[in-house]
Structures are given as structure tokens and as C-alpha cells.
Design goal:
Layout (H helix, E strand, L loop, with lengths): L2 H16 L11 E4 L2 E8 L39 E4 L16 E8 L8 E6 L5 E6 L2 E7 L5 E4 L9 E8 L24 E6 L3 E9 L6 E9 L7 E6 L4 E6 L5 E7 L13 E7 L2 E7 L4 E4 L2 E4 L2 E2 L2 E6 L13 H14 L3 E4 L6 H10 L2 E5 L11 H18 L5 E8 L5 H17 L4 E6 L2 E4 L2 E4 L10 E4 L16 E4 L5 E5 L18 H15 L5 E4 L7 E2 L12 E2 L12 H15 L3
Parallel strand pairs: 21-22, 21-31, 22-23, 23-24, 24-25, 25-28, 27-29, 28-30, 30-31
Antiparallel strand pairs: 1-10, 2-3, 2-4, 4-9, 5-8, 5-10, 6-7, 6-9, 11-12, 12-15, 13-14, 13-16, 16-17, 18-19, 19-20, 26-27, 32-33
Helix pairs in contact: 2-3, 4-5, 6-7
Bound molecules: (2S,3S,4S,5R)-3,4,5-trihydroxy-6-oxo-oxane-2-carboxylic acid (GCB).
């Protein structure tokens, strides 16, 4: 065999192996929702997991034991313990748990009428942070990472009656975890996203990637991955009925079919967020969902959407439902948050600082909002630790696996405000490489920092920029860095010929607090920051987008100032009660101006 051919084969195998074995579009599958009330036990000492010698106990709470005789000693009882809603973080469901970081056990009983030939998976939309799952007293596995989906196969393990699923969720922060100990957001714990049983035939479509090929507006490319005894050499069909497309491909020995066909589709864009019903089928299995098609690339300092330069009029968002309190998790939350972004005049949102729930990107697809999606590689990760890297890489892979068919997602971000060093550069380059291998179609970015060359010159020259497509940069001129008018005196030097997005700027204001514009925490001060920033940003030649910090006030343990912060970061343009602050209207009118200019 020629060396070249061998390399190509090796690469093909490597990329197939790198695909995270997640069930794509789990919500589009037949199954049983396990959302609703679950029994819960708070376990700060992990008594239900370790014995008194601190060894993993074979008789933990996952056994869901009941005393069989009055003499039996069982010191817990799920049935008689408090209930909590799933999806939902525990912090906002029980006052005692507002600041809690530790283990909570969840238990849900269910019946499962048997269906012949069906394979069964238990699917979690997300659980923060470490999750261990047990079905009927047997361990299924463990998952690490608070914001990405995962599943376990339970074929043949569910009974007709009386199943119990027990889940240990632990949100203790760890130095070697991703994120690490220090963040500026609330460490909401629990089964924060939906849980379901997903049913599929013996051989099924495990995953697929159907998007326009990089650089093309007429050629759909990607792959379909089958799983099961008949996965190899199997016909796979991709249909887009509205466009009269029905194309068939053949899987290889690994169950992987390469997909490629030419077509003319109406392209997805913020002005016209066209979605097509796409159906993928093979043998007895078929799955469908709505998918948009668009191209995204860069050319010099420009970002091109469908071949045309675009300016990203954005806003950063945390996954928090300000009015209800706690993590956002459903379609209504997504429509509220993204609806506010639309009202602001956005065509773009930065979903900070971790992958948000799936409804966010699905609703963004529908509303026509481009999305920046990122992994929680935030601030001071343990750059030298191979396990930390493997963990970050896995979370990145799961984020991409879930959302690679979302037209809205145009940018994958690998990090936020990480301090430049050789180990950090190596770590992040490794993530960029991994993201490109999994998804060659999207742009790669990171929210980096800038520094001063002299008192009036800001320089953007992070060496990571060399491997990124779009340079992200956070700056807080007017808040952490001098007064708002300092922005008037600054000029910007960007060393690479690439598009720049100012991924954060802003300042805190308590809604309804008024005063002179030089007085911190007032709406006037925040407004002044935005006014000076906008003038400054207009002077940066390579600026192609911005996502100021942030749409709404959000909870943060780093923000204790009484009567002003009360454990909220107040940089929102909208308060946690839904009040628009003055800066909201400043940004809104700037975005209207940009739209009129055709940006
Ligand atoms: C930042 C961080 C963001 C913080 C923000 C702030 O630079 O990226 O997570 O919340 O500043 O408010 O200080």
C-alpha cells in the first residue's frame, strides 16, 4: 500500500473513532420522558456512596433498599424524601440549597412495556457536574461535565414494572475540573436538563452530519453513522422532501456512510432563517428534524455568511432564566432570552461560558440568530494536566456532536480569558485541532485578552490567534480599566489579518438606580460606558462583531455587595426582573444604525 493511501485511511479511521457515540437528535426519537418529580436525598458527606472507611460501598443509596422486616436497618428512604423537578437545578428549588455544593441523589421509578427488537438508552440532556447513573441497583456509568448530553444503553435491563433509576449528581468544584474552582457564575447543581428513555431499532442511525460542505453553497456533505449488527454495508437514505431530494449512500465496514450531493437550497440567514425537514433512514430506522443550510467562512478581515460580509450584532447570554430564577432549560426560556436579543436588534448571540441547553440553538435556528457556542475552559484551568485536557476535549466533542446540524451555530469557542503560556497554548491548540477534525465547516474562536503597548494603544496579539479563524477579545475599558471616557483616547492594534469580535465589554448597573454618570452602579454610568465604547469600537478597522456583557443580570457568588449586587452580576442590559436599563436602548439604537448601514 502506498504511504499516501495508508495515511488517508488512517485519517478516515481516526475521524470515525473521534465521533462521540452520542445519539443524535435524541428528542426526535420515540421514547419515554422521565421529566417531572424525582425523589431526592441531600448527601453532603456522600454517605450513600462511601462506607465509613471511605471506600465505594456496594450497598449505597443506588440499591433503593427497603427494610424487609421490622428489624432491618436502612437509614434512607427515597419514597419518603422530598421531591424536586427535573429538569431543574436544585439551588433554586430548595432554599437550603441556594449555596450548596455537593451530592444530591435522585430517584425515579417507572414501568417499561417491552417492545421486541428495540434497543433502549437512557439519555441525559445535561447534569452538573459529575453524574453516576444506576438502573435497578446496577451501575451504568459515570459522566463528567455539567453542560453536555450523554447516554447509556440499557437494552434488556428494564423490566415491565417497578424500575428505579438512581442518579448521584455532585457539583463540588475541583481544581483539575473544567471549569475549575474559580468562575463568575452560579454553580447550579442537579439534573438541570431533561432525562428520557430513547428507543431505537437493533440497527439504528446513531449520528449524522448534514450541512453544506466547507466553501460551498451548492454541495451538501457529511456522513451518517449506523450502530448495530447490520450497520456495515447498509444503504442509508437522506431526504429533503421539500427540495425533492432523496439520495442513498452505502456504509463501510464501520457503519459509516459519507454523504455528498449537489442541490440548490434556500440558504439560512438571520433575515430568512429557512429550515428544511431532513429525514435520515436506514433499514428499520428513520429519524428527522429541521435543518438549515448556510455557508460560513472568513476572507481576510471579513466574516462571510453565504458568501457575503456580515457584522455580528450580538449579545452575551448566560443560561439563566432571570424571571423564574435558576438555570434555563426549556423552549419558553429560550424564546424569552432570544426574543430579548432580537428586540435588541441582534443577529448573533454568544452563549457563554458553556454549552447551553439544546432548545437555545434550536430556537436560534428558528429565529435567525447566529450562535457562538463555547466550552467552560475558563480562566485558570490546569493546563499541564492530561486528564483535564481529556475532559475539556470530551466536553468539546459532546457539544459539537449535539449541535453540528444547527445552522445557527457559526462559531465554536475553545476558551475564555485564559492567561497566555506555553502549556496553555498547547492545550488550546489541541482543542482547536480536535474541533476542526470533528467539524471542518465552522469557524473556530476563543475569547482572549489584550494588553497595552503604551497607555493609549491596545494590542491584540495572543499567539493562539494563529490557529483561530476569528479573534475574540474581552475588554472592560470604563469598568475595570479606567473611566468610560478612557475609550476615547485608545487606538487598537490587531497583529493578525483576521476578523475581530469584541466578545465582552460592559459594566454593572442596578436597574432603577440613578445618579450622575460618574457614579458607579447607576444606569447612567453603564450607559456612559456603552456610549464611549461604541465610538471606540467604530474605529477598529478589523472589527466584525461584538457581544457585550451581558443580556441579563445573573447570579454570581463573586458579587456580594449588599443592596446592589446581592450575589448578582449586574452587568445585564436587562435586570433579573425584566427591566430594561438605559444602556439597553443605547445598544439597540446602535444596532439599528448598523442594520441601516447594511451590517
Ligand atoms: C469577564 C468574564 C465574565 C465575567 C465578566 C465580569 O471577563 O469573562 O465571565 O462575568 O468578566 O463581569 O467581570
Amino acid at each position: 500500500m502506498k504511504v499516501g493511501v495508508f495515511c488517508v485511511l488512517l485519517l478516515a479511521c481516526a475521524s470515525a473513532r473521534a465521533q462521540t457515540p452520542l445519539i443524535a437528535n435524541a428528542g426526535g426519537r420515540q421514547g419515554l420522558s422521565l421529566d417531572g418529580r424525582w425523589q431526592t436525598i441531600i448527601d453532603p458527606y456522600e454517605n450513600g456512596f462511601y462506607d465509613y472507611r471511605y471506600q465505594e460501598s456496594p450497598n449505597g443509596y443506588f440499591k433503593n433498599a427497603k427494610p424487609k422486616t421490622p428489624a432491618d436497618l436502612v437509614e434512607y428512604d427515597f419514597d419518603d424524601s422530598p421531591q424536586m423537578y427535573v429538569p431543574g437545578d436544585w439551588n433554586s428549588q430548595d432554599e437550603r440549597l441556594l449555596f450548596y455544593e455537593g451530592t444530591v441523589w435522585y430517584e425515579k421509578s417507572f414501568d417499561y412495556p417491552k417492545r421486541p427488537g428495540a434497543r433502549l438508552f437512557v439519555h441525559f440532556g445535561g447534569a452538573n457536574y459529575e453524574t453516576i447513573v444506576y438502573l435497578n441497583g446496577e451501575k451504568l456509568g459515570r459522566h463528567e461535565g455539567g453542560f453536555t448530553p450523554f447516554d447509556f444503553e440499557v437494552t434488556g435491563r428494564a423490566r415491565e414494572r417497578g424500575n428505579f433509576l438512581v442518579v448521584k449528581v455532585d457539583n463540588k468544584r475541583r481544581r483539575d475540573a473544567v471549569p475549575t474552582l474559580n468562575t463568575d457564575w452560579w454553580n447550579y447543581g442537579g439534573l438541570t436538563r431533561s432525562v428520557s428513555l430513547v428507543e431505537v431499532p437493533d440497527t439504528f442511525v446513531r449520528d449524522y452530519f448534514v450541512q453544506l460542505k466547507k466553501g460551498s453553497r451548492e454541495e451538501v456533505g457529511g456522513w451518517v453513522k449506523l450502530d448495530g449488527p447490520a450497520a456495515a454495508n447498509q444503504a442509508v437514505t437522506v431526504e429533503i422532501p421539500e427540495a425533492k431530494i432523496k439520495e442513498t449512500f452505502k456504509t463501510d465496514a464501520e457503519g459509516l456512510a459519507q454523504v455528498s450531493f449537489k442541490t440548490r437550497l434556500d440558504l439560512w440567514s438571520p433575515e430568512s432563517p429557512k429550515l428544511y425537514r431532513v429525514r435520515v433512514s436506514a433499514g428499520a430506522d428513520a429519524v428527522e428534524e429541521r435543518i438549515g443550510f448556510r455557508s460560513i467562512e472568513t476572507k481576510g478581515q471579513d466574516i462571510l455568511l453565504n458568501g457575503r460580509p456580515v457584522f455580528l450584532r450580538g449579545i452575551s447570554i448566560h443560561e439563566e432564566s432571570p424571571l423564574r430564577g435558576g438555570r434555563a432549560f426549556n423552549d419558553a426560556d429560550a424564546r424569552m432570552l432570544l426574543g430579548w436579543a432580537k428586540e435588541l436588534g441582534c443577529n448573533f448571540v454568544r452563549l457563554a461560558h458553556y454549552p447551553h441547553n439544546e432548545q437555545m440553538t434550536r430556537v436560534a435556528d428558528e429565529l435567525g440568530l447566529m450562535v457562538w457556542s463555547e466550552v467552560p475552559v475558563y480562566w485558570t484551568i490546569l493546563w499541564d494536566n492530561p486528564e483535564t485536557f481529556a475532559n475539556a476535549k470530551n466536553q468539546l466533542g459532546e457539544m459539537i456532536a449535539r449541535d453540528r446540524n444547527r445552522a445557527s451555530v457559526v462559531l465554536w469557542s475553545v476558551a475564555n480569558e485564559t492567561p497566555v503560556s506555553e502549556p496553555r497554548n498547547r492545550f488550546l491548540r489541541g482543542l482547536v485541532e480536535h474541533a476542526r477534525a470533528l467539524d471542518p465547516t465552522r469557524l473556530l474562536t476563543a475569547a482572549n485578552e489584550r494588553h497595552y503597548a503604551d497607555p493609549t494603544t491596545q494590542v491584540v496579539d495572543d499567539p493562539l490567534g494563529e490557529v483561530l479563524d476569528v479573534l475574540g477579545c474581552n475588554e472592560y475599558v470604563g469598568w475595570y480599566d479606567g473611566p468610560p471616557e478612557k475609550a476615547d483616547r485608545l487606538s487598537w492594534k490587531v497583529t493578525l489579518e483576521k476578523p475581530l469580535v469584541i466578545s465582552e465589554f460592559g459594566g454593572d448597573a442596578l436597574a432603577g438606580r440613578h445618579g450622575d454618570k460618574s457614579e458607579r452602579w447607576t444606569e447612567e454610568y453603564q450607559r456612559d460606558i456603552y456610549e464611549h465604547q461604541i465610538k471606540m469600537l467604530r474605529r477598529i478597522p478589523s472589527l466584525r462583531g461584538m457581544s457585550p456583557w451581558i443580556l441579563t443580570d445573573f447570579r454570581s457568588p463573586r458579587r456580594p455587595l449588599p443592596r446592589i449586587q446581592d450575589f448578582y452580576n449586574r452587568k445585564g442590559l436587562i435586570s433579573n426582573r425584566g427591566e430594561r436599563k438605559q444602556a439597553f436602548y443605547v445598544l439597540q439604537s446602535f444596532y439599528r444604525e448598523l442594520s441601516k448601514e447594511g451590517k
